[in-house]
Specification:
heterodimer; A: 249 residues; mainly alpha; 7 helices; 2 strands; 6% strand; globular; B: 188 residues; rod-shaped
């Protein structure tokens, strides 16, 4: 019995869709789970009722709506509601795909840096383009904090600019690393149970109780992390958009 | 971001997945650039589809339901407030009406009492007057009767005195003398 905690991240092409340049575009397991996430969200938001007194499914849909709306209003103000569909899509896409990914034998979309980086860059360019479009050159005043003595201002500006351009990196790596590390840890601990059982016999099965308990605890933690990282991604998006909407703070 | 030699690597990764369980060759899947293009394309398609569904249908729909509920709740609350105001006004009207009626009843009672008092007073006065008249008449009658009686007494006394004198003295006394003697003794 060999434990391969990396195997779960393999991209397996099901069929080829076409070619762009010399890249093969395939329909992969990642594509499948993206599609599943989109369908689940569509099902939740569209198939739930429109009753005055909501049922369970409708409550979940409405709580998601209110949750994201409240997050935007509290971090980016009422003007941030312009980006409600974007932030709602990001949050739900990540939350649903992460939660689906915790189920054994599924695939976690956000465990691939290219995906989180693409989403982080989408946010980054939205902030940059909207900020410049709305505020013109005044947008770049976010790099010049108020009340800083003139002699250290260049240094502070350098740090501010650097941190601004490093935002997509931290934004994407945080989500990617959390999902990746969590799933690897889960797989390793779960693998211990089987490994002990197969190599040490009855004693091993008894000894496997400890890693099994750890796996259960980690599983609960992973469920929390799956939601939390989606929320963190969404709230950081709100905070970055707040810079574009109110560059003067 | 995908490297140009992605094709070759992709084939290598594909071959590797079939023969998995042996030694783990190839790139670490999240950093395998041969998959980047596929993932980016499917992400773009999935996310754009999701964005369109969310922004065009899902959010207006759910938001509409929530707003409708909010409107309904506000409308019901306003309706309840209106009804409460109405009942308060009705209660106030009832109370003021009751107070009016009470004061009116009191006024009527007072008036009636005064009227009755006045009437009974008048009746009493009339009765008293009548009684006074009767009393005066009676007194007058008593006085007359008494005067009459008194005059009779004098006659009787004179006769009696005359008779006594005749019995004692055997002389019939002069009536005038007897009369003046009786008068004198009556005065005394």
């Amino acid at each position: 019995m060999k434990i391969d905690p990396i195997h779960q991240f393999n991209i397996e092409p099901f069929f080829t869709l076409g070619h762009i340049g010399n890249h093969t575009i395939a329909f992969t397991n990642s594509s499948l789970f993206m599609l599943i996430a989109v369908l689940l969200i569509a099902l939740l938001m569209l198939a739930s009722g429109r009753e005055l007194i909501p049922g369970r499914l409708q409550s979940v849909a409405e709580i998601s709506y209110e949750f994201v709306a409240t997050t935007i209003r509290s971090t980016a103000g009422a003007e941030g509601m312009k980006f409600f569909p974007l932030i709602f899509s990001l949050f739900m896409f990540l939350c649903v795909s992460n939660l689906v990914g915790v189920i054994p034998y599924t695939f976690t979309i956000a465990s691939h840096l290219i995906v989180t980086a693409a989403l982080a860059l989408l946010v980054f360019f939205t902030v940059l383009i909207y900020g410049v479009y709305k505020n013109g050159l005044k947008f770049f005043s976010i790099f010049v904090p108020h009340g800083v003595p003139i002699y250290i201002l260049p240094l502070v500006m350098f740090i501010e600019i650097l941190s601004f351009f490093l935002r997509p990196v931290s934004h994407s790596v945080r989500l990617f690393a959390n999902m990746l590390a969590g799933h690897i840890a889960l797989k390793v601990f779960a693998g211990f149970v089987a490994m002990l059982g197969f190599s040490l016999g009855a004693l091993g099965w008894v000894g496997g109780v400890l890693p099994l308990a750890l796996t259960i605890a980690l599983y609960a933690l992973e469920l929390l992390v799956a939601f939390l990282q989606a929320y963190v991604f969404a709230i950081l998006t709100c905070i970055y958009l707040n810079d574009a909407i109110h560059p003067g703070h | 971001m995908a490297e140009s030699h992605g094709e070759a690597k992709g084939q290598k990764a594909g071959a590797h997945t079939e023969a998995d369980g042996g030694h783990h060759g190839g790139a670490f899947p999240p950093f395998d650039s041969s998959n980047f293009a596929s993932q980016l394309v499917s992400l773009a398609i999935a996310f754009v589809a999701l964005y369109l569904i969310v922004s065009r249908i899902a959010l207006p729909r759910v938001g509409g339901t929530i707003d409708a509920r909010q409107d309904k709740i506000e409308g019901d609350l306003a309706e309840a407030q209106k009804l409460k105001d109405e009942s308060d006004a009705a209660l106030k009207a009832y109370e003021s009406e009751l107070a009016n009626a009470r004061s009116r009843a009191q006024a009527i009672g007072n008036e009636t009492r005064e009227k009755l008092n006045a009437a009974s007073e008048a009746e009493r006065k009339a009765l008293e007057d009548k009684l006074a008249v009767k009393l005066a008449d009676a007194e007058k009658q008593i006085a007359t009767t008494r005067a009459n009686a008194m005059s009779n007494v004098r006659g009787i006394a004179a006769d009696a005195a005359g008779a006594i004198v005749q019995r004692l003295a055997g002389v019939t006394p002069d009536a005038n003398v007897v009369g003046s003697a009786v008068d004198a003794s009556l005065k005394g």
